[in-house]
Amino acid sequence: MAEREASGLQVLLHTLQSSCDRESVLTILRVLADLLSVGTDRRIHYLISKGGSEALLRTLVDTARTDPPDYEVLLPLFRLLAKVGLRDKTIGQKALELEALDVTLILARKSLSHSQRLLHCLWALRVFAARVTTGAMLGINGAMELLLKVIPPYTHRHSRTIRAATEVLAMLLRSKSNSRRAVNQGYVTSLLRLHQDWHSHDAAAACVPIRRGLLLCLRNVTTIRSGREAFLAAGGMELLFSHAQDDDLETDVDKLTAKPGLDRPEEELLQYEAMCPELSCGFEELESQSGGDLNSGCANHQHIPAAASPKPLRVGQDQGSQERAGEDTIQASLLRMVKTAGARSRPATTLHPAGRANGLGTASPGNESPGIQAPLEEDARGLGAVSCPRLSAFLCTAARCGDTAAELEELLKSRPTHVAFHDPHLFMAKAKRTRSVVDFEMLAFPDLWGHRPPPSAQSMLERKCGIQRIKILEDIRRLIQPSDVLNKVVFSLDEPGLLQDTDSNSLRFFSKFESGNLRKAIQVRECEYDLLINADLSSSQHQQWFYFQVSGMRAATQYRFSIVNCEKPNSQFNYGMQPTLYSMKEALLGRPSWVRAGSEVCYYRNHYVRHVAGAGGARGRCYYTLTFSITFPHGEDVCYVAYHYPYTYTALMTHLDLLERSVDRRQVYFRREVLCHTLGGNPCPLVTITAMPASNSPDHLEQFRHRPYQVITARVHPGESNASWVMKGALEFLVSGAPAARLLREAFIFKIIPMLNPDGVVSGNHRCSLSGEDLNRQWLSPTAQRQPTVYHAKGLLLYLSSIGRRPVVFCDFHGHSQKKNVFLYGCSIKETLWQAACTVGTAHLSEDVSYRILPKILAKLAPAFTMSSCSFLVEKSRASTARVVVWREMGVSRSYTMESSYCGCNQGPYQGLQFGTSELEEMGAMFCLGLLILEFKSTSCHHQLLARAAAVLNTEDGALDFHLQRCSTGSSTAELEDEPPCAEEVEYSVGSGADPDASFAELDRQIQACAFDADEGAQAEQEDAEWRRKGIP
């Protein structure tokens, strides 16, 4: 059979070369095109092995020498040559020997006024020029001069042809002789002018491939010394630097200053009036409450700064001088109070006493909650009586069948959790109401039992020298020594019937719970597992967040886990960050904590190629591997491993219920309502916090209703769970009895949306909603049907703006995977134009520069915050984010995104430490304190508020030397560059850094798409006729 197939192909190729019948040649070309358009590359390589390249080249030469050349034969012939030539590494040499090189160059010169013919010639020249020696021969024959005629200044026409010309020229300039010829002919200056012209006119970024081709030409010509000298002499460095600065910056002043119209009918905004009852409520039930204890019933929390012991104010002080000193005194007292609290809660740099690798160990008795330490010995003796796998299985049954959970109730009585603002019973009740498109089968024990922060923060993991290369070599060893590789699937969502053997030595995995994400687990060796995580629902991208259960481990055994389908090209896992771990046995021993765990942590590119749809349409992109080793603290435990500290939607709803119960209704106005329902049917909560009016007198009600608004949102990206922990700290602080919190409530009305993407959080997504969209790219024109939470959040902000009550500050809490510390992104017209080196004058532009005050305050106030990472540039790619839309459309000059690192700090008091939940919650409280100091610094700060602040804080003259402008210099430490290249980074690319496989794959796609129907052919002929009349553009 194989011989008959071979003889059949050889007959076709022989007939193609020898036939003089035009129809026969066209038929053979169509047959070959059909054969090579399906299947794998093996068909093309088989064709090459049977002399297919030579047959096509000879046919090209013979057809081109007819007078006139028959382009109905030449065009499909060129397409086949380009397709085959991509896989034939010697195609250039063959073309040179068979004179096809000169023939193609002659045809290209004759086709300058025919765009389609020229395009096909350029495709062939590109594959010929893949061999440097062939490229040098083309340069000698004048190919570069020809190509520079084809590449015009910016034009809308013939973009495919121009792109092909730039790519061929870049291939030619890989030859040093061609580069020297280009320098001598002055082509470097011409290339810079062309790039400048295309860059300046391509505002819509529609011609990026052409600009990239020109940059590749410049890069290749500067590989020789004379090329670098010519590049510098022509001002290339300055030109490209300016391009790099403004490539994504919005430099259109009209767009920066214009305020877009409403994206909905104005009357539709009236529905949000019901979400602001504080503006119209009469509080008829209130009576004067003078002399009451404002702290009564208010919640407190361990990271909230406590006030000093009360001291009476001195009576008889001159009122004028008291007012003049008021602002500085208030700020100083707040700062001193915060510093004192920060010193008390500052984490130690030591790890836990035991388990240095995974951070687990016995906590200090002094740090245990009341009622926990006493029964620890008894619990330790009787822990074997409580089977963690059995309890885990019970949680599955309870979640699915709604049992009374008597066993769990008994366990809670014998081992109370003592976790602040957490109630397992309430959590179970809330979990039954959480809706998910994913069929959950259990409650995750950490979410049910709760989390109490460890007594100290954990240091960043020190990277062992050479560890990344060791891990990569271990992966390679699988291919060359497959005998010890098991490749046993032990867990898979794709195989529901797959049973995990409880008697085998394999670990058992599970992820079908809220926020869980693990798709498949493959046992590679006895203690090594490859893991695959899900892409976001309704999407083929964003594999980063993971959260799964693992059980069946042996004590004192190191296990290696490799998540092999991560997407991001780099991660803080390479710079000291560790995953998080929760042990059920540790929790039952009184230490219910998520801790950083794992040793030998590496993040690197692997050889698995991403699907085109999953790579955003790009070809040749690879996945990345996160690998780490864990030694579990107990045998036969049930543990949970996660990307970061999980914070689920059910946990939020439980937390809000407990917060609402904790407040003193006489003093704290706490209102929780539903902003809207998500696509999955979950209510999106909206929280309003302020102080109750002192009475229902007109003056008190007037002051209550005219308090300015502050709007805070979080968790638009589900995988950024650190944003929820920051929000948790802010919420607990705002309802607390701390003096600063009372002042904040009396000064502002807080509108808070703590979770903008509940469905994504429930589903275990990393970035998207149920519709597969990044909700933080939908603020320009959201719809109630596809993005209900963003639509109604924006509607509420538009309503507040329409009644003259736009917020003083808008801030959206996020998490950042590439940088350390906490920092803000804001918006500034002038800084954007200056950074872009825009020629438009900025002197006539007026801008409120107060957007910089809050980050400066936070840099002096919060140990984790750094000013040096803050940015106030408005990028084109961020035009549809909450920060930019609220700034541009609502006119909120202090519109921010606050980014918290997944990792930790490289500056200030927390330098070298990973963030725990305590530090993240503290940041939430510090942000609120920053809002209060911002108000004290504002010119509109009311004297009554200053007087009230003096009364609450019991300030005195001696505090003036703590003025905010001269306060702590601890956070002024210069930030390290984030991040330097990994010392062990492995370069996978070949040649000069380009990816030829991806490049050729793109050319292959273009050739495949070049099947013109009659209409497109007619349009091409019209364009060619116009070119012939007008000449080259």
UniProtKB/TrEMBL annotation:
Ranges annotated as biased composition (Acidic residues): 1014-1024
Q: Which reaction does it catalyse?
A: (L-glutamyl)(n+1)-gamma-L-glutamyl-L-glutamyl-[protein] + H2O = (L-glutamyl)(n)-gamma-L-glutamyl-L-glutamyl-[protein] + L-glutamate; C-terminal L-alpha-aminoacyl-L-glutamyl-L-glutamyl-[tubulin] + H2O = C-terminal L-alpha-aminoacyl-L-glutamyl-[tubulin] + L-glutamate
Name the UniProt key words of this record, in alphabetical order.
Carboxypeptidase, Cytoplasm, Hydrolase, Metal-binding, Metalloprotease, Protease, Zinc
Which ranges carry the Peptidase M14 domain?
645-935
Q: Where is the active site?
A: 899
Enzyme class per UniProt: hydrolase
Q: What is this protein identified as?
A: tubulin-glutamate carboxypeptidase
* Species assigned in the record: Oryctolagus cuniculus
